[in-house]
Design brief:
6-stranded antiparallel β-barrel; 7 domains; DNA-binding; Rossmann fold; 767 residues; alpha+beta; single chain; Topoisomerase I, domain 3; Topoisomerase I, domain 2
Length: 767
DNA sequence: CAGTGAGCGAGCTTCCGCTTGACTT
């Protein structure tokens, strides 16, 4: 029996803290929330002052029973959940459910997992802050009201099983609006002029590139400019050198870790979190769901020592950062290595790489700023008012850049900018060796990648570190958004080159628009977004969360009761819901006419059909038209007539084979070949519109062989022919008596005996 | 699993934030 029971939220945290406290303390975890609003129905008694109906979810029963038992035996119970709204609520639910008496229950908080912080917390217990708890109840109730009243409107007015919510609907809106910007974007070309200069009399050492201060929209203007340059004279009008400092980025929060892991390691948001979770569980890093950039004093000191040891004292700059994120609750430290002196770890490749990234970012944050010289040279023309401008940066002292530099989404360096520039006196005459006017196209805005969406949500104060990854999963699962790759397209660009007094022309191709894993809306995502915007503009407003957060804060400060707050919100909101149900919705039946098929003279339309977005050829006068499903990535709003007509080319018949036609089409699993009753997917590199008969036959043969190989068991046993070890997508498994059984961890299929397999089967059957 | 392009209408779907395993063939 233990004298003291300490309850925290996370089991890994419990393990660490237990080491810091004496033998008389037992530390257990609640695994997050232990109670929630009733799963069925609204879970709120709206007309009884919004009384929440709480219940213990099925999967929490065991934890609660265990904690109950231990709490009864303990002399003192310490509620040590996080010091934020949710943590305070967890403490209150625990106190309520475990029937903890006020006099031997203590609420303690700490923001970092260090021995000093924990002992300090134990010495300064307080009581549960009911205002903070009520702010959480308000948050929970509001989210349920919004989600469970909006979603049914969508079922009725748009399509069943859809969903809407305070966070997810704004996330979808961001993606839809970006797509509309891209659709509306008109690309324009202009000529950008770059010249190669050197100082008169010193061609070797003084070579540099400079860009003209303006570009030319019309080709003839660019040509005229170059012609004028043939007998132009140039001189330096300004040469300025300015020292600048570049500061290290703060240590990681959840959102910045997701961004950097995406950019530098190519990891998805969910992947980053799962790898970080493993590092956390091994005690290698601090908690990975945090909005704080704060470092403990201990970590700052360790960084100082480590930096001094590795690079010398002049590189060390011990300091802390201020959190800027909207609505940050700062219950934890920034994400950092638990032990700064540990530079690398054992583990899988992603674990090692993510740890290294965290280590570098943390240590660099405690290093001095880099010092750079930024040089700007301006070149005047004798007969025109434009100028050529060159700028460059030279690192004078590397500082933190010795270890780490933050990446950006737009890693594009402008031509004519860069490294070292020569020192020049004002008035120096310079000579242009070549001047090039190159065609440049304006770029459409790019679609969000996962981390960029998280960044935007965080800026708006929407969502929490624990929900960024799940929110993305939700909007993808609902079919509102897809992760898409796009092939780049090619276009011709013209270079006009003035060299040796003559202008010549050179054509080049450039590719543009290539995208990997970008978030794009689906048609249903756009329809739902437009519907919500038309009926519930105030709820999916970007500032809605920020506004209600202010109200939650007032509840937390005791200025207003949560009932008042929720009532003030609910009355007008519920009116909107009633109004929406009462109005006819014609948005989902939208049909877009794309034009007329030149071959048949029939109209081509795009709309959402029973099985998703489709194009229709003809079918105007009550007759049945020809239908074709739209491809992934195509939208009703932006598909062109040409793209639509292409879709009718499938399914194609490649001719007979063994008396059966060989067909190629596109189904819900992508392009496929059908021969009789058997289906084969095309390879990624094959195009269903152009694939040849020879290639199709080759694919059929290949897939036949693969299928034979896959159905072949890995192992058979002489004792019993029905006991098989097969290879599946989750690794090897046992197939026996029509059922499948997974192998215990670490067992090797080649070393299992028949008796082993029998045991595994028997054990699984007992369960 | 690879197709479709209406109108029988049961009973169901859904939120956001805290936390981890259990489990797919």
């Amino acid at each position: 029996m233990q004298e003291n029971l300490v309850i925290v939220e996370s089991p890994a945290k419990a393990k660490t803290i237990e080491k810091f406290l004496g033998k008389s303390y037992m530390v257990k975890s609640s695994f997050g929330h232990i109670r929630d609003l009733a799963k069925k129905g609204l879970g709120i008694e709206v007309d009884k002052e919004f009384e929440p109906i709480y219940e213990i979810p099925e999967d929490k029963r065991k934890v609660v029973d265990e904690l109950s038992r231990l709490a009864r035996q303990a002399k003192t119970v310490w509620l040590a959940s996080d010091e934020d709204r949710e943590g305070e609520a967890i403490a209150w639910h625990l106190a309520t459910v475990l029937n903890l008496p006020i006099d031997n229950t203590r609420r303690i908080v700490f923001h970092e997992i260090t021995q000093r912080a924990i002992l300090n917390a134990i010495e300064n217990p307080r009581t549960i802050d009911m205002n903070l708890v009520n702010a959480q109840q308000a948050r929970r109730v509001l989210d349920r009201l919004v989600g469970f009243e909006l979603s049914p409107v969508l079922w009725k007015k748009v399509r069943p099983a859809l969903s809407a919510g305070r966070v997810q609907s704004v996330a979808v809106r961001l993606i839809v609006e970006r797509e509309r910007e891209i659709i509306a974007f008109q690309t324009t070309a202009s000529y950008r002029v770059v010249a190669q200069f050197y100082a008169e009399g010193d061609p070797q050492k003084s070579l540099f590139k400079a860009t003209l201060s303006r570009s030319f929209e019309r080709r003839e203007d660019a040509v005229a400019f170059l012609e004028g340059c043939i007998d132009e004279r140039y001189s330096v009008s300004k040469c300025e050198e300015k020292p600048v400092q570049r500061y290290a980025a703060p240590p990681f929060t959840t959102s910045t870790l997701q961004q950097e892991a995406g950019r530098k390691l190519g990891m998805s948001v969910a992947q980053t979190m799962s790898v970080a979770q493993r590092l956390y569980e091994q005690g290698l890093i601090t908690y990975m769901r945090t909005d704080s950039v704060n470092l403990s004093q201990m970590a700052i000191t360790q960084c100082k020592n480590e930096i001094t040891r590795l690079f010398g004292a002049k590189y060390s700059y011990p300091h802390n950062f201020k959190t800027k994120a909207k609505g940050a609750q700062e219950a934890h430290e920034a994400i950092r290595p638990s032990y700064i002196e540990r530079h690398e770890i054992e583990g899988t490749a992603p674990e090692k790489r993510l740890y290294e990234l965290i280590w570098k970012r943390t240590v660099a944050s405690q290093m001095v700023p880099a010092e750079l010289d930024r040089t700007t040279i301006e070149i005047n023309l004798s007969r025109r008012s434009e100028q050529f401008v060159a700028s460059g940066e030279v690192v004078r002292f590397d500082g933190f850049m010795r270890l780490y530099s933050e990446s950006t989404d737009e890693d594009t360096q402008q031509e004519g900018e860069g490294g070292i520039l020569p020192k020049m006196e004002v008035g120096t005459a310079v000579v242009a060796t070549t001047i090039t006017a190159s065609e440049r196209y304006t770029q459409a805005p790019s679609r969000y990648n996962e981390a960029a969406l998280v960044k935007r949500l965080e800026e708006l104060g929407i969502g929490r570190p624990s929900t960024y990854a799940p929110t993305i999963t939700t909007i993808i699962n609902r079919g509102y958004v897809e992760k898409q790759n796009r092939d780049g397209q090619k276009r011709q660009i013209e270079h006009l080159i003035l060299s040796g007094g003559k202008i010549s022309q050179k054509m080049a191709t450039e590719s543009y628009g290539k995208e990997k894993s970008r978030l794009a809306p689906t048609d249903i995502g756009m329809v739902v977004n437009d519907y919500l915007e038309s009926q519930f503009a105030s709820i999916i407003d970007y500032h809605f969360t920020a506004n209600v957060e202010k109200e939650f804060d007032r509840v937390a400060d005791g200025e207003i009761t949560w009932h008042t707050m929720i009532n003030d919100f609910y009355a007008p909101f519920h009116k909107l819901v009633d109004a929406a149900i009462g109005t006819q919705n014609d948005r989902t039946q939208q049909v877009r006419v794309l034009g007329v098929d030149p071959k048949t003279g029939l109209t081509v339309k795009a709309r959402i059909g029973r099985y998703g977005p489709m194009v229709e050829l003809g079918g105007d006068d009550g007759t049945k038209g020809q239908f074709a499903s739209m491809k992934k990535g195509q939208l009703i709003e932006s598909i062109t007539l040409e793209e639509a007509l292409e879709l009718f080319a499938l399914p194609r018949n490649l001719g007979e084979l063994d008396g059966e036609p060989l067909m190629v089409g596109v189904g819900k699993f992508g392009p496929y070949l059908r021969h009789g009753k058997s289906f084969t997917s095309l390879a990624k590199t094959d195009d269903p519109y152009t694939i040849t008969r020879e290639r199709a036959e080759e694919l059929l043969r290949e897939s036949g062989e693969k299928q034979r190989a896959a159905s072949e068991p890995l192992r058979t046993f002489a004792e019993d022919a029905t006991m098989l070890i097969k290879s599946g997508i989750y690794g090897p498994y046992i197939s026996y008596g029509g059922k499948n059984y997974r192998l215990p961890r670490g067992s090797k299929p080649e070393s299992l005996t028949y008796v082993d397999c029998q045991r595994i089967v028997a054990k699984a059957q007992k369960k």
